[in-house]
Write a structure and sequence with these properties.
This protein is α/β, with parallel strands linked by helices. The protein folds into two domains: 67 residues, no CATH class; 181 residues, no CATH class. 37% of the residues lie in helices and 17% in strands. The strands form two sheets. It has a five-stranded mixed β-sheet. It has a four-stranded mixed β-sheet with strand order 1-2-4-9, sandwiched between helices. α1 crosses α3, α4 runs antiparallel to α5 and α7 runs parallel beside α10. The two termini are 34 Å apart.
Amino acid sequence: GSASRPCGSFRLIMNVDLTASSAAVVLPELPSELWARVFSFADAKSLAIASCICRAWRSEALRVMERAVREITIFSGVWGEPYDEKGKEWESWPWKQAFIDMQRMPDLMLVRVPKISIVAMGQLVKERRGVGYPFIWDRIVAQHGTQVDEPRWVLMTGDVLAGSRNQPYTEPKEMARRFEGYDVPTLREAIACIFARFLQDGARHFGDNPWTYTRCQENMNSLQTVVGGFAPAGLLVYNVLHFPHDEVGVAAMRKFQAGSAEDLGSGRL
């Protein structure tokens, strides 16, 4: 199809032995619109190669990567006052790692999680959009409901991992951890990602078509906590005991250090 032709063109260009000096001769002969178009279809490896050819290609490769990550990013402004950092989060925006992960992970969202508690998130979304938690387990409220942490970036899949439904927890947990730097989501950050996407464009991930819940790391009374079932009535925050196993799976999450583009897992740039 038409989408494959630019990829073929890119492979053809990259198979030419271009040093930085020879690129200065070849590049003027290529219309800028052509190689800019070709770059937009390139994968991470090809863009990395291109960025080493010459300054012009490096600039274009970085522009393409940043634009791709920007499309999956939800910045702090979506939360409104007092959580809007007014651009400060750009200093730690982990776009390079996010772009790498986009090549190997399904349907990622990169979310700026503010210093806000689980309880406060429910209240904020209720005030802004008319929905919150139709039910939240009282033990979660008592133990985790008012906890906060410094603002940080989080990458999370927009759905449970394929094959993670209807499995004992140990198996989908290992599925999430097979992606370097990723783990099972934590409660507060999972809720924040789901609500942030809803605040941004009204999308209800981990919703009701089909009914979908992700397990979270927190275990209470020997029961794994879950988040999901985001129907028009709101988001459910409960434990795994109350839902059919074929509705429960596991998302994958990478958490970055507060104020840094460096992650908390094993993966590093």
